[in-house]
Amino acid sequence: FSKDFSRSRERIWDEMKFLFNDYLIAGERVLDLGCGNGRFYELFKRQNIDYIGVDISEKLIDIAKKRYPKVKFQKVDALNLAFPENFFDKVYSIAVLHHIPSQEFRKQFLKEIKRVLKPRGILILTVWNLWQKRKTKRLISKFILRKILGKSKLDFKDILMNWQKMENCYFHCFTKGELEKLITKAGFHLKRSGEILVGREVKKLPNSNFYIIAEK
C-alpha cells in the first residue's frame, strides 16, 4: 500500500506552489503534517526553514528518510502530536484532512494543530474537492442514499472509493463552506480560502482542491 501511495504522490503541481513560495519565511519552524514520502520538502528547503515532517505511516516515513537522510522525519499520530504547545510558526497539511474519519477525529486533528502553533501562527491546509467530477458525484449520492436507508455506518458525505491501485480508500467529501466552518469552529481566524485547479496541461478536467489559510 505504502509503495503504491508513494508512487501516486510524486508530482508537485505548479498551481500549488504559491502556498509555499508566497507564505514561507526564512528561519521559521514549520511542521509538514502528513508529509507522506516527503515530496513537498523540495519546496520547503528553498526557504531556509527549520523543517519537521511527520506521518502516521512508518513505511512512508522510511521512504522520506531514504530520499532526504539529513532531514527530520518522524512517525507521529496527527491526533496526538509529540510536540509542545506554541512550537511551530506554520503548519502545512496538504491533502490529509479528507482521509480522517469521523467529525470527532477531524476536530481533534485541528485542535492539535492549534495547540502546537505559536500565537498568530499560520495553518495552510488543502483538501480534495470530490464534488467536481461526475463520477464521484454519483458515488457520493450512492453513499448518501445508503446512509438514509440505514445501510451504511459511514457519516454523511463519507465514501469508500478505489483510487489508483488501492481499494476502498476512505474520503470525506468536503464542500468549501463546510471546510471553512470547521476551521473557524476550531478557533482559527480565516485569512484566505479558495479553490485550486491542478493538472490543466495534462487533463481535460483538472482536479480541484480547496485551500485554507488561517491564523491561530
Question: In words, what does this structure look like?
Answer:
There is one protein chain. The protein is an alpha/beta fold. It folds into 2 domains: 2-129 and 174-215, Vaccinia Virus protein VP39 (Rossmann fold, 3-Layer(aba) Sandwich); 131-172, no CATH class. The chain has helices at residues 2-7, 18-21, 41-44, 58-67, 103-116, 134-148, 176-185; strands at 29-33, 50-55, 72-75, 88-94, 117-128, 158-163, 166-172, 189-198, 207-215. It has a 7-stranded mixed β-sheet, with helices on both faces. Strand 4, helix 5 (103-116) and strand 5 form a beta-alpha-beta unit. The longest helix has 15 residues, at 134-148. The chain is globular and about 55 Å long. The chain starts with a helix and ends with a strand. Mean pLDDT is 85; it is low at 1-9. InterPro entries: AlkB_tRNA_MeTrf/Diox, Methyltransf_11, SAM-dependent_MTases_sf. Residues 31-125 form the Methyltransferase type domain. This is Methyltransferase type 11 domain-containing protein. GO terms for molecular function: S-adenosylmethionine-dependent methyltransferase activity; tRNA methyltransferase activity. Keywords: Methyltransferase, Transferase.
